[in-house]
Amino acid sequence: MHEQTAVRTYGVAEQFRLHPEVKAEVDEGYRGLANAFPDQVNAPPKKLKDDAPPGEHYAWREMRRRQSSARICVAHTNAGPRQWCPFQRCTTRREACAETRGHPSAARC
Q1: How far apart are CA 61 and CA 46, in angstroms?
Q2: Quick count: other Cβ atoms within 10 Å of Cβ 35?
Q3: Distance of alpha carbon 96 from alpha carbon 82, whole angstroms
Q4: Pairing outcome for strands 24-25 and 41-42
Q5: Reported confidence tier of residue 39, pLDDT bands at 50, 70, 90
Q6: Contacts of 39 (CB under 8 A, 6+ apart)
Q7: Cut 0.70: pTM above it
Q8: What is the mean pLDDT of residues 55-61?
Q9: C-alpha 80: how far from its chain's center?
Q10: Per DSSP, which regions of 1-109 are E strands?
Q11: Helices (H), the chain
């Protein structure tokens, strides 16, 4: 699902209005939300134009790196359960998995 569709569908913007103490670190897909709630939503800095001085490019890369580093721990936490999903299934025929017969998770094999 596209980020803006999720924002509209699940009422994320309304939640920010109802709970002004909530803060969020988001990626570039939520730029509109960051523009609407600048005190609550922190998005990566906008990309600089090519003619910007090298010092500004360096500062821009550093700001993006810091913002990304702050978000990555949450992204890894959210990805954890999805990474374990393949281990819930047998890779062979169910009949060949004697130790899983009758187990509640055997129906997913």
Answers
A1: 10
A2: 10
A3: 26
A4: parallel
A5: very high
A6: 20
A7: no
A8: 90
A9: 12
A10: 24-25, 41-42
A11: 3-10, 12-18, 31-36, 54-84
